[in-house]
Amino acid sequence: MKIKTIWVLVLLLITGLFTAACGSDGQRSAQSVHAKPHIVTTTTMLTDLVQVIGGDYVTVEGLMGAGIDPHLYKPSAGDVNKMSKARLIIYNGLHLEGKMSDVFAQMQKAGVATLAVGETLDKSRLLESEEFDGNYDPHIWFDVQNWMLAVAKVKEALIALEPAHKEQFEQNAAAYISKLNALHSYVQAQAKRVPEQSRVLITAHDAFNYFGRAYGFEVKGLQGISTAAEAGTADVRELADFIVQNKIAAIFVETSVPKKTIEALQEAVKARGFQVQIGGELFSDSLGESGTPTGTYTGTIEHNINTIVKALLAE
Predict the structure, then answer these.
(1) How far apart are CA 294 and CA 301, in angstroms?
(2) Roughly how many angstroms between the first and final C-alpha of the chain, as a whole number?
(3) Which of 25, 164, 168, 228 is deepest in the core (most CB within 10 A)?
(4) Which helix (H) or strand (E) covers residue 40, if one does?
């Protein structure tokens, strides 16, 4: 038996879910007394989305806090316990939460409802991964149009879970779609301020390809689409050469990735006799702290485009 599978089973045994998976319905019946359905989400983006659509009619518990990298996140015994007691688990899928896949499978076997939002999108909306053959880039939220599709899927899941509040979920979703439409238009308008030849976005890892496709940017990441793979010397050298040859004005750090990789790239560019600025910090795999302007999906997207445009235009 694989070590990873043994580890998952140990967590399940610790939380008592293993018994439930074998036929006990104690936890399921215990949930029925709750006034609001308990939903567990993985990433901060999804926590925000479910809170917006669910409003006061659901209880949402996010596993990952601000600044947490979902590629590297390993669920604790407490996380598994939370998921085992949920009416619904909503996660991104497409291997974003790569170290949680066995847990999701065990939850499904135990009868816990799950929704992998990224995997509900039509294949035409997804970008194939150049690193992992047969897989797709999981960073779907960087195209606001994709997030609108995610709204529809979450709305449907909540209606199925709590049909008595169908009207409220539909109203919340419609209001949010209107807000996202305005956000999409804003990002488009801001992007067009940057001359086409200057629309090059270089970040710590390859998270922004959906953003690039939607808003007309060439995107390059020092690491691949997963932060689990570290950048090597050859990667730094190749990207430094590209920056010098194309006179790129700015490169960007990410909130959920250590700054050292981008700082090493900046030093490599400097050694070639060219100065490239660190244009600011972008939110990639996590939102900002709750209660701040970047603590919401719309706030982070607006922050990102404003930061990118300001740096590339050297304003």
Answers:
(1) 8
(2) 57
(3) 168
(4) strand 38-41
In angstroms, rounded to a whole number, what is the distance separating the alpha carbons of residues 315 and 310? 5
- Alpha carbon distance 260, 204 (integer Å): 9
pTM for the whole thing? 0.88
Dist. CA 22–CA 7, nearest whole Å: 18
Tens of pLDDT, residues 207-248:
999 999 999 999 999 886 555 556 578 889 999 999 999 999
CA–CA distance from 125 to each of 50, 96, 137, 216 (Å)? 21, 16, 11, 16
- In angstroms, the CA 25 to CA 13 distance is 16
Using CA atoms of 89, 123, 71, 211 in order, give the dihedral in degrees to the nearest 10. Answer: -110
Contact 104, 114 (CB under 8 A): yes
Q: CA 236, CA 267: separation in Å to the nearest integer?
A: 10
The structure tokens listed for 288 are 């900002």
User: What are the helix (H) ranges across 164-296?
Assistant: 166-191, 209-215, 233-246, 260-270
Question: Phi and psi (nearest 5°) for 58?
Answer: -140, 160
CA 155 to chain centre: 18
> CA torsion 136→142→147→150, rounded to 10°?
30
